[in-house]
Amino acid sequence: xxxxxxxxxxxxxxxxxxxxxxxxxxxxxxxxxxxxxxxxxxxxxxxxxxxxxxxxxxxxxxxxxxxxxxxxxxxxxxxxxxxxxxxxxxxxxxxxxxxxxxxxxxxxxxxxxxxxxxxxxxxxxxxxxxxxxxxxxxxxxxxxxxxxxxxxxxx
Length: 155
Description:
3 strands; mainly alpha; 155 residues; 7 helices
């Protein structure tokens, strides 16, 4: 039987915290008139200086190609991004903010990034370092455990 302290340090407590964080971003994206995926795509384009390879978005956010393509079509339809072939490629595409996308990003995405930076900076250097170290360790551990579970199910 778990007491209150056990509940505070359980995997379920971490899951709940991740869900709350996801909800914050989901609601912010919706407030911007975007899907969560579209928000993160604009975020990726912004932090990349206004242009980023489509492949990078899929890799950095672990989105499927289909999910990214769907969000890109919606962003393109809103006139916020252009999608062009990378120089010298007939397959690889680059996502770039349009002038309308730049204005939207300056109004909605940049302030969110700055707020995120302020929130993270409110932690001490040691806390930030420890938080990242532990998050990486946990991500690697859960990846190993779920991969092992998947391997057992495939037997």
